[in-house]
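How a chain folds remains the central question behind the approach discussed here. The record that follows shows the chain in one-letter code together with its fold in token form:
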Amino acid sequence: MKLHLVLPGLIWPSPNASGLLNGLQLPAFERLLGSGRSAISPGQGFEPWIARNFSLTAGSGHPPAFPYATLRRMGESGTPINDGHWLCADPVHLHFARERLLLSDAEDLDISRSEATALLEGLNQLLVAEEIDFIRFEAKSPRRWYLRLKSAPQASFAPLNDVVGRPVASFLPSGQDGKRWQKILNEIQVYLHNHPVNKAREASGRRMINGVWFWGQGALTTRPVAPAPLVLTRNRLVRGMALASGIRPDNPKRLPQLDAMVVLDPLLRPSLYLDLDTWRAELPRIEAEWFAPALEALRKRRLDELWVSAPGDRMVYDLQVRAIDLWKFWRRPLSLDRIVHPT
């Protein structure tokens, strides 16, 4: 049996950070690191990495245009329906820091369903009649919104995770219709800023939902190919890829009993926001729930081979451990610090 653990966010974004792992006990993972063979390749974000692992081909443009919106929406609904052109139109909080416009995603905005409904109804009234290729805005959850279009947008959009913590101005829509989409973003920002929902949030000391971020354009023209017969994840984008490939994904609860890819993303958001406390708190959980059971399964030959992949902007780290590798007694445990904080 082969198991592939995917851990976006394991590679800390800053190579100069100190004290990342002080006091953390990760004996199983360190034993795996010392026993296996590792490889480092050029960095890439989680979204393009996972798309390529499902054998998806990017469309033209920069960044590459994978159909993230269509696939994530499939993962929301649980059905592989490919019904037109979609963009993610995720709600965000825009704010200035050191004279730069930054954004925060909706994870901590605590958006209620009634707030999302009111804001989207307003956006539909404002823009659907005005923009001839807009069909409707919709929300599959209060934190994840979508825009359906009549035709593919002639612009390139950056994934939301690429923009977090970086100047928004460097990631605005580009390409043939880039200026038009920038204008639409500005119009939405003004509208949301003045909406009664945000006035009420501001009055109660809550952050405003004062923007949306468009991303994920692209048509699903070829069927994804799952890298394993079983895919376990709570990530809706990956669940959509699995569904589109013909596999019914499941939640990652315990070590599977057949070849599987397990995508665990609790480290991703803390790494994007440089939230070291949360990042550190998640590592022991992953150690106890996945690395320790995987090490035991390798020792007892219930698992023949383990792969660990950690895609990130700095690098992509891959580790391969075979059951036979654990018999190489001269190999010593290797600190995770050698990977996430190399000297």
Remarks:
- The chain has two domains: 2-50+223-340, 58-215.
- The mean pLDDT is 92.
- Residues 58-215 form one domain.
